[in-house]
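User: I'm curious what two different proteins look like when written out as structure tokens. Can you demonstrate?

Assistant: Sure. I'll show them one after the other, since each token string lines up with its own sequence. Here's the first protein:
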Amino acid sequence: MKIDKFVIAIIITVIAAYIYPDLGKGESAQVLNTLSSIGISLIFFFYGLKLSPQQIKIGLKNWKLHVLIQATTFIVFPLIVLTAYPLITEDNKALWLAFMFLAALPSTVSSSVVMVSIAKGNIPAAIFNASISGLIGVILILLWIGFFMTSTGTDYSLIEVYQKLLLEILAPVILGLLLRRFLGAFALKHSKKITLFDKSVILLIIYKSFSKSFLDRIFENLSPLKLLAVLAVAILIFWIVYFFIGFIAKRFHFSIEDRITAQFCGTKKSLVHGTVFSKILFQNASFLGIILLPIMMFHAFQIVAISVIAAKHGRRD
């Protein structure tokens, strides 16, 4: 099993933010803000270019599978985290909000499809669900997160957030869809380069977020034991959802291909959307690094776990 290079790049970026945090303040912080905003718009413009309306049409037929995946992604995940809310102390509210943010995120596109392919699952359904998940997530994440952001005292303007979502995410996606007939082939041809660009933007946002958190000494209250607890909770949530989907899929008598797709797509959370939405929703909040902590840990674990499971399924006849 290969070590994911992107996970290594994330770790290096966080270390760089710790050693050289000064780029995250003053004029350089404004430059990073501008670059990341442009990068976000381009990520979703390319997303629109690669989104196939025909694939979405074909995918609509297998509606039970789609309902299970989307319901798990946007309802089951948040409800699991929501059950812990009455137990949260004032000191741990930001960390709980970080898990709620993780739970409200859409599924990741590229790795879901790749892993389903390795495991010999239903690839068209994986493409459909991973693609549609990103569009649904733009709307639903505000419904889940908005109230709790206000209650935690975050500097939060709903109008400003909607404006940013419209300008930086929805408008580029729509523009990409409109230009797909002209530039779609170009986007598919250079998909590896586009993926590299996407990851570079994500690393830029992670650096900026963590450098600000390190400068504001946000992590001083997080002991190594607490960090391990965050990782343990992220892993626990993953397995609860994974086995829940497997149970429901068996009750509905899904084929092995559909069950693989449901479990792989339904347990994934997009680090790309996480970093992008965190920048828009939480803007310059000092605890932005903490907000990204669970999604980065979850992302690293889901890649390892699903890779092992995919390899096992891929060896079947």
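Here's a second, unrelated protein for contrast:
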Amino acid sequence: MTIANIEGAGAATHVASRQMRNAMVASVLGWSLDLFDLFILLYVAPVVGALFFPSSVPTLSLAAVYASFAVTLLVRPVGSAVFGHYADVYGRKGAMLAAIVGVGVSTAAFGLLPTIAQVGIVAPVLFLILRLVQGIFVGGVVASTHTIGTESVSPNWRGAMSGLVGGGGAGIGALLASFIFLVMSSIFPGDAFAVWGWRCMFFSGLLTSLLGWFIFNNLEESPFFKAHLQMKLAGKIETTRAPVKLLFSGRYRYVLLLNLLLTFGGGAGYYLTSGYLPSFLKLVNGVPNGVSSLILMGASVAALASAVLVGAISDLIGRKKTFLLVGVCMAVLLPVCYLGMAKATDTTAITLYALAIAFLGNAGYAPVLIFLNERFPTEVRASGTGLSWNIGFAFGGMMPTFVSLASAGPAQIPMSLSVFAVVIFVIYLVGAAMIPETKGDFR
């Protein structure tokens, strides 16, 4: 199914061209702005750990922060169910707009929180409550941004679009967070960062809400959804009022379960690479904040290039072969990079390893988005994609917590990461071997 045969022969080319451009920008920026909000916590994890979850053992404080990150991931499926239902029944645009503004506002609220030294146990409780609220909105962003882009682009570029939204959005979000981290580290050097620097980083979430509203307020609806709505109004298809319920029926239950093997592997790979890099640089390599910011900015560019490249490869050789190829590379090369980076002492070597780790980590889930889109028809695509993505990424997002708990100290982190990477990508390869080829199956 193409845009042309959805819209009709008349103004199909004009509508497709305009919608393709706007939807690409909206999807990529929507996901990048929300990942920017999430990356803020990853970049200040050591500081936040000491202020809200203090411990005499650094890795335990770090584990607590990553656990709070996992809490957000666990409620993201709830957000996907709520906003995905809205997106499938009423449209992608409204769901995207509400979710993006919600994420930005909830992120900024973290900057207002009192620390444990100020109010005691109330501080971590408030912190976790806000993480839950933020997670629901982020789950909603996935359900909308991860469908409107691929539903609007040419069939020949859906894999590349998948990488651009999923991995490219992540890379741009991380790049923005790295830049803010660099700016705040310069304005609030040394101990001052633990007083005001981390708060100002969270306050920047308000900028994403304003920018999101400006970008998405005039966005056109997805052509697939518009055609689907027209057919419903004409009585040509049956109206689906409960897309989430339909997903858990016998018709789609196995599809969801099989999807989770890939989304778990892709999510875990992402959070153990790009997500763990800020802590790795600080705790294992002892890199100063300013230098770390520059390295992370470079890693974000590598992540963007990897995601688009691997997504485009899936357009050429198919989704299944791409998953198998990437899975083998991840299981073999990630341990080499982790252990090599731990031994590196000069900045150049550390940077090269960081770039390689970011490149590999984003390759793991670059084609996942379009694969999920192709697994579900338009009537349940937002809900099915959002739930598959967020449930898998929820479990994958727990892996940094387990890595930190499995490490007695910073010196053990590289080996823990290596072991987890091998096990996770064996699971990923099992999923890749079991799935059908979906390339071109878009309905």
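A detail about the second structure: The chain has one domain: 12-434.
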